[in-house]
UniProtKB/TrEMBL annotation:
InterPro entries associated with the record: AAA+_ATPase, ABC_Ni/Peptide_Import, ABC_transporter-like_ATP-bd, ABC_transporter-like_CS, Oligopep_ABC_C, P-loop_NTPase
Family: Belongs to the ABC transporter superfamily.
PROSITE patterns named in the record: ABC_TRANSPORTER_1, ABC_TRANSPORTER_2
Subcellular location, record wording: Cell membrane
Matching CDD domains: ABC_NikE_OppD_transporters
Protein's name according to its UniProt entry: ABC transporter ATP-binding protein
Length: 344
């Protein structure tokens, strides 16, 4: 494995009963990066995250490979997962309340997490827990509170502190800010990315929040109906998307106010005149039990042809560090958002 690669995912499939939720996903997570995974609801992001952690739902069938160093996580026995958990892999879940026990003080829960990996004395574990909570902005005199006494933002900070306790190699954050207001979201994401950087932790960020991706991620992987649609550096993908689906997603992105040409900014966007209304992708994603043949996005795609797109799944192809799975990626207009602008 390339030494720059921390986690290598190959031909990952996750199915639950008749639902083929993840269908042949391959990508690498590189050491030290923030990789965002985006896509509409039901695209398979969370099940991918769970497979990456070696913790798919019990009823799921997982095939393919997720390698971390010498460990294979697909089908890994409990002993392998236990060896990796905390030191190598950790999760920041969507719902901090359900991740914390309601009947134990926050600092005691972190102390127990310290002891589960390091086996130090209770006093030492408590001191480390308090220090970790301080790092995420929770003052020492509040660490003896119970989770319900914290605000949602503080609970999420506590969960981030818990995930980063042992400076794991990789943290997967699954929609870590969903329930928060925009300002708290920004603070939590700032904290998560800065703390990850400080602890040398690589971050996979599952999110719907494209402005946050633009601000915080190095690379982005776009999923549609369980497959990779596009993947590459954020700046490159956000300014020059190659897949029509990505272009459609990006049309919903608020445009930066200042005319600077900074990181991840959408350049060369067409002027939106009064004759246009804000674009959106027409239609809805397919249900995973009733997937169309060929490209799953074809029924919604303005570039789809009448034959190949509806019969042959486009294979991902990589040029200059940027991967796309689309038969017509070379046909995208200079301003891909135009594909989705509707005249009124
Ligand atoms: N435990 C389960 N049993 C049956 N189907 C499931 C289960 N978990 C997920 N699915 C289905 O698998 C598909 C992918 O789900 P997943 O949660 O990975 O999507 P997602 O991209 O994370 O969506 P969201 O952004 O809404 O969280 C969806 O159709 C979902 O309904």
């Amino acid at each position: 494995m390339n030494p720059e690669v921390l986690l290598s995912v190959r031909d990952l499939h996750v199915s639950i009963g008749a639902v083929d939720a993840v269908r042949g996903l391959s990508f690498d997570v590189r050491k030290g990066e923030v990789l965002a995974v985006v896509g509409e609801s039901g695209a398979g992001k969370s099940l991918t995250a769970r497979a990456l952690l070696g913790m798919p739902p019990q009823e799921a069938t997982v095939t393919g490979s997720v390698r971390m160093g010498s460990y294979e996580l697909v089908g890994a026995p409990r002993s392998v997962r236990a060896a990796l958990w905390g030191r190598q892999l950790a999760l920041v879940p969507q719902d901090a309340l359900s991740a914390l026990s309601p009947v134990h003080r926050v600092c005691d829960q972190l102390g127990a997490a310290v002891r589960s990996v390091d086996g130090v004395s209770r006093k030492e574990a408590r001191a480390r827990a308090v220090a970790a909570l301080k790092e995420v902005g929770i003052p020492a005199d509040q660490t003896r509170a119970y989770p319900h006494e914290f605000s949602g933002g503080m609970r999420q900070r506590a969960v981030i502190a818990m995930a980063l306790l042992h400076s794991p190699a990789l943290v997967i954050a699954d929609e870590p800010t969903t329930a928060q207001d925009p300002e708290t979201r920004r603070q939590i994401l700032d904290l998560l990315t800065h703390r990850s950087e400080a602890t040398g932790t690589t971050l996979v960020l599952i999110t719907h929040d494209l402005p946050m991706v633009r601000e915080h991620a190095d690379r982005v992987l776009v999923m549609y109906a369980g497959r990779l649609t596009e993947e590459g550096p954020v700046e490159e993908v956000f300014t020059r998307p190659r897949a029509p689906y990505t272009a459609g997603l990006l049309t919903s992105l608020p445009q930066p106010k200042a005319p600077r040409q900074g990181r991840g900014e959408l350049r060369d966007q067409p002027q939106r005149t009064r004759r246009h209304r804000l674009p959106s992708i027409p239609g809805t994603p397919p249900t995973p039990t009733d997937l169309p043949p060929g490209c799953a996005f074809a029924p919604r795609c303005p570039l789809a042809d009448a034959t190949r797109c509806h019969t042959e799944h486009p294979k991902p192809q990589t040029h200059n560090n940027h991967t796309v799975a689309c038969h017509h990626w070379r046909d995208l207009p200079t301003h891909p958002a135009e594909l989705f602008l509707e005249s009124v």
